[in-house]
Write a structure and sequence with these properties.
Order of helices and strands: EEEEEEHEEHEEEH
CATH topology: Nucleoside Triphosphate Pyrophosphohydrolase
Number of domains: 1
Low-confidence stretches: 152-157
Distance between the termini: 45 Å
Number of strands: 11
Oligomer: single chain
Structural class: alpha/beta
Shape: globular
Mean pLDDT: 90
CATH superfamily: Nucleoside Triphosphate Pyrophosphohydrolase
Length: about 160
């Protein structure tokens, strides 16, 4: 196993949740790589607070302004991806964004600064036998926003 970087990455990711769906980035499925989804966000820069990084990432990746963010969890992930070791501390936020809430649930949008796609996915199709959802803890955090049954509307509707 190759070590990509010996530093721990600090990340801020957000979970737009609506009507039992969560907006996530899609990865994999090409070149034999298994498909998975990931919460939207990225690295926290030196001197930047996690919530500031979250707002910046949504603006850079989707061109939208998050109007509210609430920290749901902080998780630690030690993993191997494509043969490389990784170690992350991830701040997971619920987010409110009127622009994203207006997107139809069948919307698929290319990320501005990446080749990946973001799309709404039903919470009950993620994890377990469904698509893997990263980072660890993100699925439970998203479920905490909608309550015990992901088929019901968000508590913040």
């Amino acid at each position: 196993m190759e070590q990509a970087d010996l530093r721990i990455r600090n990340l801020a990711v957000g979970l737009p949740v609506r009507d039992g769906h969560v907006l996530v980035q899609e990865f994999g499925g090409a070149d034999g790589e298994p498909p998975f989804v990931r919460a939207i966000g990225g690295g926290i820069e030196f001197g930047e607070r996690a919530d500031e990084a979250l707002l910046r990432e949504f603006l850079e990746e989707l061109g939208v302004a998050v109007t509210a963010a609430e920290l749901l969890a902080v998780t630690e992930n030690i993993f191997t991806f494509l043969g490389r070791a990784g170690h992350e501390i991830v701040h997971i936020f619920s987010v409110e964004c009127p622009a994203l809430e207006a997107w139809p649930l069948d919307t698929r949008v290319k990320v501005i600064d990446d080749v990946s796609i973001v799309a709404w996915h039903r919470l009950d199709t993620l994890g377990g036998e469904g698509l893997p959802f990263y980072p660890d803890g993100a699925l439970d955090a998203a479920r905490s926003v909608v309550g015990p049954d992901p088929r019901v509307e968000s508590r913040r509707s």
